From TrEMBL:
Protein name: DNA repair protein RecN
Organism, as annotated: Myroides pelagicus
Family of the protein in this entry: Belongs to the RecN family.
Gene name as annotated: recN
A biological process from GO: DNA repair
Domain RecF/RecN/SMC N-terminal positions: 2-508
Amino acid sequence: MLSLLTIKNFALIESLEQAFDEGFTIITGETGAGKSILLGALGLLQGKRADLASLKNKEEKCIVEGHFNLVNYNLEEVFDSLSVDYEEITIIRREILPSGKSRAFVNDSPVNLSDLQVLSSYLIDIHSQHQTGELSDENYQLQIIDIIADNHSLLEEYSTTLKEYKQRVNELADYIELQSSLVKEQDYNNFLLQELEEANLTSLNQVVLEQEYEKLNNVEHVRESFTHASSLFTEEQVGVISNLREIRTLLQKISGLDAEYKELTDRVISVDIEVSDIANDLESLIESVISDPEQMTLINERLQLLYALQKKHQVSTVEELLKIEEELSSKVFKANSLEEQIEKAQKDIKRLEDRLSVLANNISTARKDVIPSLQKQLIDILSLVGMPASRFRFKFIEAAHFLSNGKDQIQLMFSANKGSDFGLLKKVASGGEMSRIMLAIKSVLAVYSNLPTIIFDEIDTGVSGEVADKMGNIMRDMSSKMQVFAITHLPQIACKGNTHFKVFKSEDKGGTISQLVELKDDKRVNEIAQMLSGADISESAILHAKELLQK
Protein backbone atom coordinates (compact mmCIF):
# COMPACT_ATOMS: atom_id res chain seq x y z
CA MET A 1 0.00 0.00 0.00
CA LEU A 2 1.02 3.62 -0.53
CA SER A 3 2.20 4.77 2.89
CA LEU A 4 3.91 8.06 2.03
CA LEU A 5 3.89 10.44 -0.93
CA THR A 6 6.40 13.27 -1.34
CA ILE A 7 6.16 15.82 -4.15
CA LYS A 8 8.55 18.73 -4.76
CA ASN A 9 8.45 21.36 -7.50
CA PHE A 10 5.73 19.64 -9.54
CA ALA A 11 3.13 21.76 -11.38
CA LEU A 12 1.39 23.91 -8.72
CA ILE A 13 2.90 21.95 -5.83
CA GLU A 14 5.99 23.48 -4.21
CA SER A 15 6.42 20.84 -1.53
CA LEU A 16 4.09 18.16 -0.20
CA GLU A 17 4.66 15.23 2.11
CA GLN A 18 1.66 13.15 3.12
CA ALA A 19 1.33 9.83 4.91
CA PHE A 20 -1.60 7.56 4.09
CA ASP A 21 -3.26 4.75 6.01
CA GLU A 22 -4.79 1.52 4.81
CA GLY A 23 -8.54 1.36 4.23
CA PHE A 24 -10.70 3.82 2.29
CA THR A 25 -9.30 7.31 1.64
CA ILE A 26 -11.38 10.14 0.16
CA ILE A 27 -9.94 13.07 -1.78
CA THR A 28 -12.19 16.02 -2.60
CA GLY A 29 -11.71 19.54 -3.89
CA GLU A 30 -13.03 22.02 -6.38
CA THR A 31 -12.47 21.51 -10.08
CA GLY A 32 -9.00 22.77 -10.94
CA ALA A 33 -7.79 22.66 -7.34
CA GLY A 34 -5.05 20.16 -8.17
CA LYS A 35 -6.51 16.66 -7.91
CA SER A 36 -5.24 15.90 -11.40
CA ILE A 37 -1.78 17.10 -10.31
CA LEU A 38 -1.73 14.41 -7.63
CA LEU A 39 -2.65 11.81 -10.23
CA GLY A 40 0.01 13.18 -12.55
CA ALA A 41 2.64 12.83 -9.84
CA LEU A 42 1.53 9.26 -9.14
CA GLY A 43 1.65 8.64 -12.87
CA LEU A 44 5.37 9.44 -12.80
CA LEU A 45 5.80 6.68 -10.23
CA GLN A 46 4.06 4.37 -12.71
CA GLY A 47 6.71 5.12 -15.32
CA LYS A 48 4.72 7.56 -17.44
CA ARG A 49 6.56 10.12 -19.56
CA ALA A 50 7.94 13.17 -17.80
CA ASP A 51 7.41 16.67 -19.16
CA LEU A 52 9.69 19.63 -18.50
CA ALA A 53 6.56 21.79 -18.37
CA SER A 54 5.68 19.99 -15.11
CA LEU A 55 8.42 21.85 -13.24
CA LYS A 56 7.02 24.69 -11.14
CA ASN A 57 10.45 26.30 -10.84
CA LYS A 58 12.31 25.68 -14.09
CA GLU A 59 15.66 26.17 -12.36
CA GLU A 60 15.18 23.32 -9.88
CA LYS A 61 14.58 19.63 -10.31
CA CYS A 62 11.23 17.98 -9.60
CA ILE A 63 11.10 14.99 -7.24
CA VAL A 64 8.19 12.62 -6.73
CA GLU A 65 8.70 9.82 -4.22
CA GLY A 66 6.35 7.09 -3.06
CA HIS A 67 6.82 4.69 -0.17
CA PHE A 68 5.02 1.38 -0.61
CA ASN A 69 4.49 -1.09 2.23
CA LEU A 70 4.71 -4.51 0.55
CA VAL A 71 4.56 -6.80 3.59
CA ASN A 72 2.48 -9.95 2.86
CA TYR A 73 2.10 -9.21 -0.88
CA ASN A 74 4.63 -11.86 -2.02
CA LEU A 75 6.25 -9.69 -4.66
CA GLU A 76 9.83 -10.93 -4.23
CA GLU A 77 9.73 -12.87 -7.52
CA VAL A 78 8.60 -9.77 -9.41
CA PHE A 79 11.57 -7.81 -8.07
CA ASP A 80 13.93 -10.70 -8.89
CA SER A 81 12.66 -10.91 -12.46
CA LEU A 82 13.46 -7.21 -12.90
CA SER A 83 16.84 -7.52 -11.10
CA VAL A 84 15.72 -4.97 -8.50
CA ASP A 85 16.42 -5.26 -4.78
CA TYR A 86 13.29 -6.10 -2.79
CA GLU A 87 12.48 -4.11 0.35
CA GLU A 88 9.37 -4.48 2.52
CA ILE A 89 9.11 -0.69 2.40
CA THR A 90 9.94 -0.05 -1.23
CA ILE A 91 10.73 3.52 -2.30
CA ILE A 92 10.10 4.60 -5.88
CA ARG A 93 11.51 7.98 -6.92
CA ARG A 94 11.27 9.97 -10.14
CA GLU A 95 13.33 13.05 -10.85
CA ILE A 96 12.89 15.56 -13.65
CA LEU A 97 15.99 17.72 -14.10
CA PRO A 98 15.89 21.31 -15.44
CA SER A 99 17.60 19.94 -18.57
CA GLY A 100 14.50 17.84 -19.21
CA LYS A 101 16.25 14.56 -18.41
CA SER A 102 14.20 12.13 -16.34
CA ARG A 103 15.55 9.51 -13.92
CA ALA A 104 13.84 6.70 -12.04
CA PHE A 105 14.98 4.80 -8.94
CA VAL A 106 13.66 1.84 -6.97
CA ASN A 107 15.19 1.53 -3.52
CA ASP A 108 17.91 3.95 -4.67
CA SER A 109 18.87 1.75 -7.64
CA PRO A 110 18.39 3.31 -11.09
CA VAL A 111 15.83 1.54 -13.31
CA ASN A 112 14.53 2.11 -16.83
CA LEU A 113 10.94 3.18 -17.38
CA SER A 114 9.82 -0.11 -18.91
CA ASP A 115 10.86 -1.99 -15.75
CA LEU A 116 9.22 0.67 -13.58
CA GLN A 117 5.99 0.28 -15.55
CA VAL A 118 6.04 -3.48 -14.97
CA LEU A 119 6.79 -3.12 -11.26
CA SER A 120 4.21 -0.39 -10.62
CA SER A 121 1.49 -2.51 -12.22
CA TYR A 122 1.86 -4.82 -9.20
CA LEU A 123 1.67 -1.92 -6.74
CA ILE A 124 -1.01 0.53 -7.79
CA ASP A 125 -3.92 0.88 -10.22
CA ILE A 126 -5.08 4.39 -11.08
CA HIS A 127 -8.53 4.28 -12.62
CA SER A 128 -9.11 7.59 -14.36
CA GLN A 129 -12.33 8.58 -16.09
CA HIS A 130 -11.10 7.79 -19.59
CA GLN A 131 -10.17 4.25 -18.53
CA THR A 132 -13.84 3.34 -18.31
CA GLY A 133 -13.60 3.18 -22.08
CA GLU A 134 -11.19 0.24 -21.69
CA LEU A 135 -14.26 -1.88 -20.96
CA SER A 136 -14.93 -1.78 -24.69
CA ASP A 137 -11.47 -3.15 -25.48
CA GLU A 138 -11.40 -6.88 -26.17
CA ASN A 139 -7.93 -7.39 -24.68
CA TYR A 140 -8.95 -5.64 -21.45
CA GLN A 141 -12.01 -7.86 -21.18
CA LEU A 142 -9.82 -10.94 -21.57
CA GLN A 143 -7.36 -9.60 -18.98
CA ILE A 144 -10.22 -9.39 -16.46
CA ILE A 145 -11.28 -12.96 -17.18
CA ASP A 146 -7.67 -14.20 -17.03
CA ILE A 147 -7.14 -12.70 -13.57
CA ILE A 148 -10.25 -14.45 -12.28
CA ALA A 149 -9.31 -17.69 -14.09
CA ASP A 150 -5.76 -17.49 -12.65
CA ASN A 151 -4.29 -17.92 -16.12
CA HIS A 152 -1.02 -16.15 -15.27
CA SER A 153 1.25 -19.21 -15.54
CA LEU A 154 -0.47 -20.50 -18.68
CA LEU A 155 -0.21 -17.09 -20.35
CA GLU A 156 3.47 -16.79 -19.44
CA GLU A 157 4.27 -20.14 -21.03
CA TYR A 158 2.08 -19.28 -24.02
CA SER A 159 3.84 -15.94 -24.48
CA THR A 160 7.30 -17.54 -24.31
CA THR A 161 6.28 -20.28 -26.76
CA LEU A 162 4.66 -17.76 -29.12
CA LYS A 163 7.85 -15.69 -29.17
CA GLU A 164 9.89 -18.77 -30.10
CA TYR A 165 7.27 -19.76 -32.69
CA LYS A 166 7.36 -16.35 -34.39
CA GLN A 167 11.15 -16.43 -34.38
CA ARG A 168 11.21 -19.82 -36.12
CA VAL A 169 8.57 -18.70 -38.62
CA ASN A 170 10.72 -15.68 -39.50
CA GLU A 171 13.81 -17.90 -39.79
CA LEU A 172 11.94 -20.26 -42.12
CA ALA A 173 10.89 -17.34 -44.30
CA ASP A 174 14.53 -16.20 -44.46
CA TYR A 175 15.71 -19.73 -45.35
CA ILE A 176 13.14 -20.03 -48.14
CA GLU A 177 14.02 -16.61 -49.52
CA LEU A 178 17.73 -17.43 -49.43
CA GLN A 179 17.10 -20.81 -51.02
CA SER A 180 15.11 -19.19 -53.81
CA SER A 181 17.96 -16.78 -54.45
CA LEU A 182 20.61 -19.49 -54.37
CA VAL A 183 18.66 -21.88 -56.59
CA LYS A 184 18.72 -19.29 -59.36
CA GLU A 185 22.53 -19.26 -59.19
CA GLN A 186 22.99 -22.89 -58.25
CA ASP A 187 23.69 -24.33 -61.70
CA TYR A 188 26.10 -21.54 -62.61
CA ASN A 189 27.89 -21.76 -59.25
CA ASN A 190 28.20 -25.54 -59.64
CA PHE A 191 29.68 -25.08 -63.14
CA LEU A 192 32.20 -22.50 -61.93
CA LEU A 193 33.17 -24.61 -58.93
CA GLN A 194 33.61 -27.75 -61.03
CA GLU A 195 35.75 -25.81 -63.48
CA LEU A 196 38.04 -24.59 -60.71
CA GLU A 197 38.19 -27.98 -58.99
CA GLU A 198 39.15 -29.71 -62.25
CA ALA A 199 41.98 -27.22 -62.70
CA ASN A 200 43.51 -28.67 -59.51
CA LEU A 201 44.77 -25.24 -58.53
CA THR A 202 46.51 -26.37 -55.35
CA SER A 203 49.09 -28.28 -57.43
CA LEU A 204 49.86 -25.30 -59.68
CA ASN A 205 52.84 -22.98 -59.27
CA GLN A 206 52.35 -20.31 -61.90
CA VAL A 207 55.88 -18.91 -61.61
CA VAL A 208 57.52 -22.35 -62.00
CA LEU A 209 55.29 -23.25 -64.95
CA GLU A 210 56.04 -20.00 -66.73
CA GLN A 211 59.81 -20.47 -66.19
CA GLU A 212 59.66 -24.07 -67.43
CA TYR A 213 57.71 -23.04 -70.50
CA GLU A 214 60.23 -20.31 -71.35
CA LYS A 215 63.07 -22.83 -71.10
CA LEU A 216 61.36 -25.33 -73.36
CA ASN A 217 60.33 -22.64 -75.82
CA ASN A 218 63.97 -21.45 -76.18
CA VAL A 219 65.85 -24.79 -76.25
CA GLU A 220 67.81 -24.12 -79.48
CA HIS A 221 68.85 -20.65 -78.43
CA VAL A 222 69.95 -21.93 -75.01
CA ARG A 223 71.90 -24.86 -76.53
CA GLU A 224 73.58 -22.55 -79.03
CA SER A 225 74.60 -20.10 -76.29
CA PHE A 226 75.94 -22.83 -74.03
CA THR A 227 77.91 -24.45 -76.93
CA HIS A 228 79.50 -21.19 -78.01
CA ALA A 229 80.41 -20.32 -74.44
CA SER A 230 81.92 -23.75 -73.95
CA SER A 231 84.07 -23.39 -77.06
CA LEU A 232 85.37 -20.05 -75.84
CA PHE A 233 86.49 -21.80 -72.69
CA THR A 234 88.02 -24.94 -74.25
CA GLU A 235 89.53 -24.11 -77.68
CA GLU A 236 93.15 -25.39 -77.74
CA GLN A 237 94.97 -22.31 -78.92
CA VAL A 238 92.74 -19.34 -77.99
CA GLY A 239 90.35 -20.72 -75.36
CA VAL A 240 90.15 -19.15 -71.94
CA ILE A 241 91.35 -22.30 -70.17
CA SER A 242 94.39 -22.63 -72.50
CA ASN A 243 95.41 -19.02 -71.92
CA LEU A 244 94.90 -19.34 -68.15
CA ARG A 245 97.17 -22.41 -68.10
CA GLU A 246 99.89 -20.45 -69.92
CA ILE A 247 99.54 -17.51 -67.48
CA ARG A 248 99.64 -19.94 -64.55
CA THR A 249 102.89 -21.54 -65.84
CA LEU A 250 104.59 -18.15 -66.31
CA LEU A 251 103.70 -16.89 -62.86
CA GLN A 252 104.69 -20.12 -61.11
CA LYS A 253 108.23 -19.61 -62.36
CA ILE A 254 108.58 -16.33 -60.47
CA SER A 255 106.27 -16.96 -57.50
CA GLY A 256 109.15 -17.95 -55.28
CA LEU A 257 110.85 -14.56 -55.69
CA ASP A 258 108.33 -12.49 -53.70
CA ALA A 259 105.31 -13.03 -51.44
CA GLU A 260 103.26 -10.69 -53.58
CA TYR A 261 104.10 -12.76 -56.68
CA LYS A 262 103.14 -15.88 -54.79
CA GLU A 263 99.74 -14.37 -53.83
CA LEU A 264 99.02 -13.34 -57.42
CA THR A 265 99.97 -16.82 -58.67
CA ASP A 266 97.58 -18.44 -56.15
CA ARG A 267 94.73 -16.21 -57.34
CA VAL A 268 95.35 -17.24 -60.96
CA ILE A 269 95.40 -20.91 -59.90
CA SER A 270 92.04 -20.37 -58.14
CA VAL A 271 90.55 -18.73 -61.24
CA ASP A 272 91.87 -21.56 -63.38
CA ILE A 273 90.13 -24.12 -61.17
CA GLU A 274 86.82 -22.16 -61.12
CA VAL A 275 86.87 -21.65 -64.92
CA SER A 276 87.49 -25.37 -65.45
CA ASP A 277 84.48 -26.15 -63.23
CA ILE A 278 82.34 -23.71 -65.19
CA ALA A 279 83.44 -25.30 -68.45
CA ASN A 280 82.47 -28.74 -67.11
CA ASP A 281 79.05 -27.42 -65.97
CA LEU A 282 78.46 -25.95 -69.40
CA GLU A 283 79.14 -29.33 -70.97
CA SER A 284 76.63 -30.94 -68.59
CA LEU A 285 73.98 -28.29 -69.32
CA ILE A 286 74.46 -28.74 -73.04
CA GLU A 287 73.64 -32.41 -72.63
CA SER A 288 70.58 -31.67 -70.42
CA VAL A 289 69.03 -29.08 -72.71
CA ILE A 290 66.93 -31.22 -74.99
CA SER A 291 63.81 -30.46 -76.95
CA ASP A 292 60.52 -31.86 -75.47
CA PRO A 293 57.58 -30.64 -77.60
CA GLU A 294 55.05 -32.77 -75.71
CA GLN A 295 56.04 -31.39 -72.29
CA MET A 296 56.02 -27.84 -73.69
CA THR A 297 52.50 -28.40 -75.09
CA LEU A 298 51.27 -29.80 -71.78
CA ILE A 299 52.68 -26.86 -69.79
CA ASN A 300 51.26 -24.40 -72.31
CA GLU A 301 47.80 -25.96 -71.96
CA ARG A 302 48.01 -25.69 -68.18
CA LEU A 303 49.04 -22.05 -68.40
CA GLN A 304 46.37 -21.18 -70.97
CA LEU A 305 43.70 -22.74 -68.72
CA LEU A 306 45.07 -20.77 -65.77
CA TYR A 307 45.10 -17.51 -67.75
CA ALA A 308 41.53 -18.14 -68.95
CA LEU A 309 40.29 -18.73 -65.38
CA GLN A 310 42.06 -15.60 -64.14
CA LYS A 311 40.50 -13.55 -66.92
CA LYS A 312 37.02 -14.97 -66.25
CA HIS A 313 37.18 -14.22 -62.54
CA GLN A 314 39.10 -10.97 -63.02
CA VAL A 315 42.06 -11.90 -60.83
CA SER A 316 45.78 -12.29 -61.45
CA THR A 317 47.00 -14.98 -59.08
CA VAL A 318 46.36 -18.61 -58.22
CA GLU A 319 45.77 -17.61 -54.59
CA GLU A 320 42.85 -15.40 -55.62
CA LEU A 321 41.36 -18.22 -57.69
CA LEU A 322 41.63 -20.55 -54.70
CA LYS A 323 39.74 -18.01 -52.56
CA ILE A 324 36.98 -17.82 -55.19
CA GLU A 325 36.84 -21.62 -55.27
CA GLU A 326 36.38 -21.65 -51.49
CA GLU A 327 33.56 -19.07 -51.68
CA LEU A 328 31.79 -20.99 -54.42
CA SER A 329 32.12 -24.20 -52.43
CA SER A 330 30.53 -22.44 -49.43
CA LYS A 331 27.61 -21.20 -51.55
CA VAL A 332 27.01 -24.60 -53.06
CA PHE A 333 27.22 -26.23 -49.63
CA LYS A 334 24.82 -23.66 -48.17
CA ALA A 335 22.34 -24.23 -50.96
CA ASN A 336 22.55 -27.98 -50.43
CA SER A 337 22.27 -27.71 -46.61
CA LEU A 338 19.39 -25.20 -46.66
CA GLU A 339 16.93 -27.96 -47.41
CA GLU A 340 17.92 -29.64 -44.16
CA GLN A 341 17.58 -26.35 -42.24
CA ILE A 342 14.18 -25.70 -43.80
CA GLU A 343 13.00 -29.17 -42.86
CA LYS A 344 14.19 -28.70 -39.26
CA ALA A 345 12.51 -25.29 -39.01
CA GLN A 346 9.26 -26.75 -40.32
CA LYS A 347 9.38 -29.52 -37.71
CA ASP A 348 10.08 -26.97 -34.95
CA ILE A 349 7.19 -24.80 -36.13
CA LYS A 350 4.85 -27.79 -36.14
CA ARG A 351 5.97 -28.77 -32.63
CA LEU A 352 5.49 -25.20 -31.38
CA GLU A 353 2.11 -24.91 -33.12
CA ASP A 354 0.95 -28.06 -31.37
CA ARG A 355 2.11 -26.74 -28.00
CA LEU A 356 0.51 -23.34 -28.62
CA SER A 357 -2.74 -25.02 -29.56
CA VAL A 358 -2.77 -27.01 -26.32
CA LEU A 359 -1.96 -23.90 -24.25
CA ALA A 360 -4.51 -21.76 -26.09
CA ASN A 361 -7.15 -24.44 -25.54
CA ASN A 362 -6.32 -24.67 -21.83
CA ILE A 363 -6.47 -20.89 -21.50
CA SER A 364 -9.80 -20.77 -23.31
CA THR A 365 -11.26 -23.56 -21.20
CA ALA A 366 -10.21 -21.83 -17.99
CA ARG A 367 -11.78 -18.60 -19.22
CA LYS A 368 -15.06 -20.20 -20.10
CA ASP A 369 -15.18 -22.07 -16.79
CA VAL A 370 -15.19 -18.83 -14.76
CA ILE A 371 -17.74 -16.96 -16.88
CA PRO A 372 -20.83 -18.15 -14.95
CA SER A 373 -19.28 -17.08 -11.63
CA LEU A 374 -18.13 -13.75 -13.08
CA GLN A 375 -21.60 -13.04 -14.53
CA LYS A 376 -23.26 -13.75 -11.19
CA GLN A 377 -20.83 -11.58 -9.22
CA LEU A 378 -21.23 -8.66 -11.64
CA ILE A 379 -25.04 -8.92 -11.64
CA ASP A 380 -25.14 -9.11 -7.83
CA ILE A 381 -23.03 -5.96 -7.50
CA LEU A 382 -24.90 -4.07 -10.22
CA SER A 383 -28.18 -4.92 -8.48
CA LEU A 384 -26.88 -2.95 -5.50
CA VAL A 385 -26.21 0.14 -7.62
CA GLY A 386 -29.54 0.43 -9.39
CA MET A 387 -29.05 -1.99 -12.28
CA PRO A 388 -30.98 -5.10 -11.11
CA ALA A 389 -31.97 -6.21 -14.61
CA SER A 390 -28.44 -6.25 -15.96
CA ARG A 391 -27.37 -9.29 -17.94
CA PHE A 392 -24.09 -10.23 -19.59
CA ARG A 393 -23.24 -12.64 -22.36
CA PHE A 394 -19.64 -13.49 -23.22
CA LYS A 395 -19.33 -14.69 -26.80
CA PHE A 396 -16.06 -16.48 -27.61
CA ILE A 397 -14.84 -16.84 -31.20
CA GLU A 398 -11.74 -18.84 -32.08
CA ALA A 399 -9.27 -16.82 -34.14
CA ALA A 400 -7.71 -18.31 -37.26
CA HIS A 401 -4.21 -17.61 -35.96
CA PHE A 402 -2.38 -17.32 -32.66
CA LEU A 403 -2.99 -14.03 -30.85
CA SER A 404 -0.79 -12.49 -28.15
CA ASN A 405 -2.97 -14.02 -25.40
CA GLY A 406 -4.35 -17.19 -26.95
CA LYS A 407 -6.80 -17.79 -29.78
CA ASP A 408 -9.91 -16.32 -28.17
CA GLN A 409 -11.66 -13.34 -29.60
CA ILE A 410 -14.46 -12.09 -27.39
CA GLN A 411 -17.62 -10.05 -27.72
CA LEU A 412 -19.02 -8.77 -24.43
CA MET A 413 -22.79 -8.45 -24.87
CA PHE A 414 -24.90 -6.51 -22.39
CA SER A 415 -28.54 -5.81 -21.63
CA ALA A 416 -29.46 -3.26 -18.95
CA ASN A 417 -33.24 -3.73 -18.95
CA LYS A 418 -35.69 -6.60 -18.81
CA GLY A 419 -36.91 -7.62 -22.22
CA SER A 420 -34.27 -5.63 -24.11
CA ASP A 421 -32.00 -7.38 -26.60
CA PHE A 422 -28.33 -7.95 -26.00
CA GLY A 423 -25.94 -5.58 -27.73
CA LEU A 424 -22.22 -4.91 -27.67
CA LEU A 425 -21.38 -3.31 -24.32
CA LYS A 426 -19.67 -0.31 -25.90
CA LYS A 427 -22.77 0.44 -27.99
CA VAL A 428 -25.63 -0.07 -25.53
CA ALA A 429 -24.28 1.04 -22.11
CA SER A 430 -24.55 4.70 -21.09
CA GLY A 431 -21.75 6.61 -19.37
CA GLY A 432 -23.28 6.12 -15.93
CA GLU A 433 -23.83 2.43 -16.59
CA MET A 434 -20.23 2.03 -17.78
CA SER A 435 -18.98 3.65 -14.55
CA ARG A 436 -21.01 1.24 -12.43
CA ILE A 437 -19.98 -1.76 -14.51
CA MET A 438 -16.32 -0.75 -14.17
CA LEU A 439 -16.71 -0.41 -10.41
CA ALA A 440 -18.34 -3.85 -10.29
CA ILE A 441 -15.43 -5.32 -12.25
CA LYS A 442 -12.84 -3.65 -10.03
CA SER A 443 -14.71 -4.93 -6.99
CA VAL A 444 -14.63 -8.48 -8.32
CA LEU A 445 -10.94 -8.18 -9.23
CA ALA A 446 -10.14 -7.03 -5.70
CA VAL A 447 -11.06 -10.53 -4.52
CA TYR A 448 -8.78 -12.30 -7.01
CA SER A 449 -5.84 -9.93 -7.43
CA ASN A 450 -3.18 -9.18 -4.88
CA LEU A 451 -3.00 -5.49 -5.78
CA PRO A 452 -2.04 -3.29 -2.79
CA THR A 453 -3.62 0.02 -3.91
CA ILE A 454 -6.33 1.27 -6.25
CA ILE A 455 -7.27 4.89 -6.96
CA PHE A 456 -10.68 5.76 -8.44
CA ASP A 457 -10.73 9.12 -10.16
CA GLU A 458 -14.38 10.20 -10.27
CA ILE A 459 -15.67 6.74 -11.12
CA ASP A 460 -19.01 8.10 -9.87
CA THR A 461 -19.44 10.22 -13.00
CA GLY A 462 -23.01 10.04 -14.23
CA VAL A 463 -24.54 8.77 -10.97
CA SER A 464 -26.02 10.37 -7.87
CA GLY A 465 -28.29 9.79 -4.90
CA GLU A 466 -28.89 6.24 -3.77
CA VAL A 467 -26.74 4.77 -6.53
CA ALA A 468 -23.80 6.89 -5.40
CA ASP A 469 -24.36 5.71 -1.84
CA LYS A 470 -24.25 2.07 -2.97
CA MET A 471 -21.10 2.71 -5.00
CA GLY A 472 -19.52 4.19 -1.88
CA ASN A 473 -20.43 1.05 0.05
CA ILE A 474 -18.83 -1.12 -2.63
CA MET A 475 -15.58 0.85 -2.52
CA ARG A 476 -15.61 0.72 1.28
CA ASP A 477 -16.04 -3.07 1.11
CA MET A 478 -13.14 -3.25 -1.34
CA SER A 479 -10.97 -1.36 1.16
CA SER A 480 -11.11 -4.33 3.54
CA LYS A 481 -8.94 -6.22 1.02
CA MET A 482 -6.80 -3.39 -0.38
CA GLN A 483 -6.03 0.28 0.05
CA VAL A 484 -8.66 2.31 -1.85
CA PHE A 485 -8.57 6.00 -2.80
CA ALA A 486 -11.59 7.76 -4.29
CA ILE A 487 -11.44 11.20 -5.86
CA THR A 488 -15.06 12.31 -5.83
CA HIS A 489 -17.52 15.21 -6.02
CA LEU A 490 -20.34 13.26 -4.39
CA PRO A 491 -21.03 13.58 -0.66
CA GLN A 492 -22.65 10.12 -0.58
CA ILE A 493 -19.24 8.64 -1.44
CA ALA A 494 -17.10 11.15 0.48
CA CYS A 495 -18.74 10.22 3.76
CA LYS A 496 -17.71 6.56 3.42
CA GLY A 497 -13.98 7.07 3.82
CA ASN A 498 -11.87 6.22 6.80
CA THR A 499 -9.82 9.33 6.10
CA HIS A 500 -10.64 12.43 4.08
CA PHE A 501 -8.26 14.84 2.33
CA LYS A 502 -9.02 18.07 0.55
CA VAL A 503 -7.05 19.56 -2.34
CA PHE A 504 -7.20 23.34 -2.56
CA LYS A 505 -5.36 26.23 -4.17
CA SER A 506 -3.93 29.26 -2.40
CA GLU A 507 -1.82 32.22 -3.40
CA ASP A 508 1.43 33.55 -2.02
CA LYS A 509 4.15 35.88 -3.27
CA GLY A 510 5.41 33.18 -5.58
CA GLY A 511 2.00 32.68 -7.21
CA THR A 512 -0.66 29.99 -6.98
CA ILE A 513 0.08 26.71 -5.23
CA SER A 514 -1.89 23.52 -4.61
CA GLN A 515 -2.02 21.97 -1.18
CA LEU A 516 -3.39 18.82 0.42
CA VAL A 517 -4.82 18.78 3.95
CA GLU A 518 -6.51 16.08 6.00
CA LEU A 519 -10.02 16.95 7.15
CA LYS A 520 -11.19 15.86 10.58
CA ASP A 521 -14.23 16.47 12.75
CA ASP A 522 -15.99 19.76 11.94
CA LYS A 523 -13.82 20.50 8.95
CA ARG A 524 -14.90 17.25 7.35
CA VAL A 525 -18.55 17.93 8.23
CA ASN A 526 -18.28 21.35 6.61
CA GLU A 527 -16.65 19.94 3.47
CA ILE A 528 -19.45 17.38 2.98
CA ALA A 529 -22.08 20.01 3.80
CA GLN A 530 -20.57 22.26 1.14
CA MET A 531 -20.70 19.37 -1.34
CA LEU A 532 -24.40 19.06 -0.49
CA SER A 533 -25.46 22.72 -0.59
CA GLY A 534 -22.73 24.72 -2.29
CA ALA A 535 -20.69 27.65 -0.97
CA ASP A 536 -23.44 28.90 1.37
CA ILE A 537 -23.62 26.11 3.92
CA SER A 538 -27.06 25.80 5.52
CA GLU A 539 -27.85 24.34 8.91
CA SER A 540 -29.80 21.56 7.28
CA ALA A 541 -26.75 20.73 5.14
CA ILE A 542 -24.64 20.48 8.30
CA LEU A 543 -27.19 18.10 9.86
CA HIS A 544 -27.36 16.05 6.66
CA ALA A 545 -23.58 15.82 6.50
CA LYS A 546 -23.43 14.56 10.07
CA GLU A 547 -26.08 11.97 9.29
CA LEU A 548 -24.12 10.73 6.29
CA LEU A 549 -20.92 10.42 8.33
CA GLN A 550 -22.70 8.46 11.05
CA LYS A 551 -24.05 5.81 8.66
